[in-house]
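Re: beginner question about structure tokens

> Can someone show what the tokenized structure looks like for a real chain? I only ever see the sequence side.

Sure, here's an example I had lying around. Input first:
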Amino acid sequence: DTIGFVVLGSAVVFRHGPFVYAALSLWLWIFVGVFTWVVGSQAHWYIGASGLVLGYMVHLIILGVLKLFGCPPTTNCAFTWEGSGDLVVGIAMGVLYLVLIYEVLDVDGTNGLTS
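And the corresponding structure tokens:
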């Protein structure tokens, strides 16, 4: 999660500013914490930054798509390239996380933790 936290957190800071980063981080921290507390087992301890990292990724992808089609702040939703940076960073990190999950779970039986 360290690489994802640094890359996606930096993308949020540089693309949207430190205030958005701080507000998003606080909101994600509270939301993911409460969700983990409600859904998670009481017999286990939960630690990590996956909720923040995935929240940053979803934030960048959604804003990238919305900006790409011009939805915020205009109402005509005309296609623009303004959000392409957010979208590329978000999708690239999403692909990296999917590859990591594929490798760890050993989907095809040739690699992973059980080999």
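Each token stands for a local structural state, so reading them left to right follows the chain. The chain has a mean pLDDT of 79.
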